[in-house]
Amino acid sequence: MQEVQALEFRKITDDITVSPQITADHLQEIADAGYRAVICNRPDGEGADQPTFDEIAAAAKAKGLEVRYQPVTSGKVRDEDAEAFGKLLRELPGPVFAYCRTGTRSATLWSLSQANALAPATILAATKGAGYDMAGVVRRIVNGGKTPTDEGDAKFDVVIVGGGAAGIAVASSLKARKPGLDIAILDPADVHYYQPGWTMVGGGVFEAATTARTMGSLIPQGVHWIKSAVAAFEPQNNAVVLDGCRVVKYDRLIVCPGLKLDWHGVEGLVDTLGKNGVTSNYRYDLAPYTWELVSKMREGRALFTQPPMPIKCAGAPQKAMYLSGDHWFRTGRLKDIDIQFMNAGGVLFGVKDYVPALMDYVKKYDASLNFFHNLIAVDGPGKTATFKVSKPDEEPTEVTVDFDMMHVCPPQVAPDFIRVSPLADAAGWVDVDQATLRHKTYDNIWSLGDVMNAPNAKTAAAARMQAPVVAENVVADTRGLSPHAVYNGYGSCPLTVEKGKIVLAEFGYGGALLPSFPKWVIDGTKPTRAAWLLKEQILPPVYWKAMLRGKEWMAKPESVSAG
């Protein structure tokens, strides 16, 4: 007797599950799992071992299930097929179980039928989670489920996804090396921000407006700016699909859209940001509120949170704490304020050489360090924050803490359109070689900045070093040469421990110290006035006038010879 193939429930959403071919014997299990309707998308007679739809229908009806036959030829899902599938989903009682030979046709029909209701990244993530790759119909998904009639392709030598620090810097570095390159930057934003300045805004040092410039004023001369968001990638076709289903083709692609601040990752946080004493220096519009809270606070408890890594500028959550503590110290209020640092990780700072200097300030501000505390919920009106406490070798617990002021560093993930793309690793980050920053699978794709998976600190200083490496290697590739510039993992985190002094942490892969200056100029392991002047007066113009313009001051890439 032939053994019955095990039934596969490949759930896409709560309303729809798809599956490879089923038999009549599976219908009881489908009914027991709570499904109320079955759709068959496989034409009768497609395979020799395939039960007919009539057999499936009889068994389904005997189990009290609604059943529909919507056969679709393999590889030929038409627009009208998708519309008919969507109509069935609206008419049938749910949840619905759909099947074909492998489940791919059913997943494709669902994807196209939902294209007007759901974001492309949501559709791609849902089908990917069920084990189906919708890369073959991504343009149709982006086009509202319809087959595009006019692709209107534009074509460039180099396409750069993202017009932040990394994108504009690498465009400028490319132009400096090879002026004739035809380059396009894809970014929908109108404004470009100097994000490292927001810590200083929250500390009452910078005005927020000084950290913003119009995007148009920064795009390098001769570089095309396509003001549109990316919906999906087709690396097999050397194509990027934009919102609205426009397609941009490339010879070489550089991916650097930054990361996503997942404000919704903490229950109740979005509803209370910017009020009820809840703020964050990770947003341009909220950094001034940080300073408003700090300057007005006379007594009470101040919480400073840090989520699990990776995050951009891992020192930023504690920088906010130090500058706040310094203000309260200078104004004589510190004795009445309880500072609590709530860190999801297990150490104050990942490179141990800088910890002693930082601990001196933790003691100075009488701050309590709470490790393995991850913020999961906020009640703004109630002024409480709930943390999941996951200490090693202990069962996780939850603790709720009252606050008068709270500075939140949100959880951070790769952007949705990156996480669901063929460029991503299992964690959702762009998968690159950590030395050359070239993609591990696609030879004509590079990545830099916060979005890629090299194990370095995600800082603007890191992007400043990465841009020349990527530019050097892309230009080498255009000349038929192997990548020879290497990135050593350099990142810098100027830790503002008090107004007027900074611990200048500079390090590379593995926590190796990589100081830019001799110790007699700046000893990065100690708080110095010189490092403060660097942060306050020198680094902003270096960012605007050098890094974004292809002037690689103190950022020349290291090279290795082949062989």
Short descriptors:
five-stranded mixed β-sheet; 563 residues; FAD/NAD(P)-binding domain; 3 domains; Protein-Tyrosine Phosphatase, Chain A; 23% strand; alpha/beta
Compact overview of the structure:
The protein has 563 residues and is an alpha/beta fold.
Structure description:
The longest helix has 19 residues, at 460-478. The protein has 15 helices and 29 strands. The chain starts with 9 loop residues before the first strand and ends with a strand. Helix 3 crosses helix 4 and helix 7 packs parallel to helix 14 (460-478). Strands 6, 7, 10, 11, 12, 13 and 24 form a seven-stranded mixed sheet that branches. The chain folds into three domains: 10-142, Protein-Tyrosine Phosphatase, Chain A, CATH 3.90.190; 155-258 and 414-487, FAD/NAD(P)-binding domain, CATH 3.50.50.60; 263-412, FAD/NAD(P)-binding domain (3-Layer(bba) Sandwich). The protein has 563 residues and is of the alpha/beta class. The model has no long low-confidence stretch (mean pLDDT 90). Helices cover 27% and strands 23% of the residues. It is globular and about 85 Å long. InterPro entries: BLH_phosphatase-like, FAD/NAD-bd_sf, FAD/NAD-binding_dom, Prot-tyrosine_phosphatase-like, Sulphide_quinone_reductase. Residues 156-274 form the FAD/NAD(P)-binding domain. Its cofactor is FAD. GO terms for molecular function: FAD binding; hydrolase activity; quinone binding; sulfide:quinone oxidoreductase activity. Residues 8-116 form the Beta-lactamase hydrolase-like protein phosphatase-like domain.
